[in-house]
Design goal:
Layout: H1 2-12, E1 24-27, E2 37-43, H2 49-63, E3 67-72, E4 99-104, H3 111-122, E5 127-130, H4 160-166, E6 173-174, E7 182-186, E8 203-204, E9 208-209, E10 218-225, E11 242-251, E12 257-263, H5 274-287
Keywords: Signal
Organism: Blastopirellula retiformator
Pfam families: ThuA (PF06283)
């Protein structure tokens, strides 16, 4: 009888149904990226990383041949995509990754999910950081991973992952979302950089972040807040430009050096701009050391329906499982409210 009672109790106790869920993978057939594996970490609260990253992954897989694994912050019980949940199964995919694309915000993952990220950084793997990745982690001081926190005070890893890897941590908004868009002005001395081939006038719908990246960073474009929501809007009064796109390198545990590309924009709506999207595709090639393969005409067309929502806290499409994005034609993201 006791065994029956214990079994019934066990069946009633919630457990992480998503712990061993199948990851979303887009597998390219042929192209420059064939044989290279990119892992995308989508886990911010506001800017719809769960839309932006699978859209990028599809382009890079279908048009360029990369294998792209997209991981999401999910509800540990339902497995539904849940922005900012601090639960992201599948990070062991980083064990054989050639590039990590980070679009996280204030995450504090369980040890088993955080350790593969740390291992990847310690081996000096290339990194792309988008928007809130500057403040990807918010980790208590008692944690073994505390040094990755965006406000970490220790001199050996001051300001955490954002500052030490990407080149900058959270430094504040610089332009009001949905009222001030952002023009990215390419620095004249960097117009021939491989990442900027074919990129003319990148523009982002998201407002700016203030940034003063590490001195060893190479700024490619300054972010100029605009007074309104069109690319031809006048500069916002009193808002001088500041760095918005840069590259650098960081050093892993044993001296291995990894390339880094950072942009302080990157909301899902920002990808609708062809120049901004091209810059991200080019940056993927560059971080992987494939800059000699970058041309001004690399394919950047979306693959399948892309229908980003207006970004906001709590504004994500509800009830979506990662594998509902499987294949080339599934909408990003499905809108279950219409069903």
């Amino acid at each position: 009888m006791r065994r029956i009672v214990l079994l019934l109790i066990a069946l009633c106790v919630p457990f992480p149904l998503a712990a061993h869920a199948e990851s979303l993978v887009y597998e390219g057939d042929a192209g420059v990226g064939h044989g290279k594996h990119i892992v995308f970490l989508a886990g911010d609260h506001e800017y719809r990383s769960e839309e932006a990253l699978p859209a990028l992954a599809r382009i890079l897989a279908k048009r360029h041949g990369f294998k792209c694994t997209v991981l999401f912050s999910v509800d540990p019980n339902s497995g539904e995509i849940t922005p900012g949940s601090s639960y992201m199964p599948g990070t062991e995919a980083l064990d054989d990754a050639d590039l990590m694309v980070v679009f996280l915000r204030f995450q504090n993952f369980p040890e088993a999910q955080m350790q593969p990220i740390v291992d990847y950084l310690e081996r000096g793997g290339p990194v792309i950081g988008m928007r809130t990745a500057t403040h990807a982690f918010k980790i208590p001081g008692k944690s073994k991973f505390a040094r990755f926190d965006a406000n970490y005070k220790g001199a050996e890893y001051e300001k955490g992952f954002g500052r030490q890897v990407l080149g900058e941590t959270w430094a504040g908004h610089y332009g009001t979302n949905h009222k001030m868009s952002t023009r990215l002005d390419i620095l004249p001395q960097q117009q021939n950089h491989p990442i900027l081939r074919g990129v003319e006038k990148p523009w982002a719908q998201s407002g700016g972040y203030w940034a003063e990246p590490m001195p060893d960073s190479v700024v490619l474009a300054n972010a100029q807040p605009l007074s309104a929501m069109t690319p031809d809007s006048a500069p916002a009064e009193g808002k001088k430009p500041c760095p918005g796109v840069w590259v650098r390198t960081y050093e892993g545990k044993d001296g291995a050096v990894g390339r880094v590309f950072t942009t302080t924009n990157g909301a899902s709506e920002d990808l609708l701009d062809d120049d901004f999207r091209r810059m991200l595709i080019n940056a993927t090639y560059w971080t992987l050391g494939l800059e000699d393969q970058i041309t001004p005409k690399l394919a950047i067309d979306f693959v399948g329906p892309y229908q980003p929502v207006t970004f906001s806290f709590g504004g994500h499409r509800k009830g979506v499982q990662p594998l509902q994005l499987k294949g080339w034609e599934a909408p990003i993201l499905p809108d279950h409210s219409q069903q």
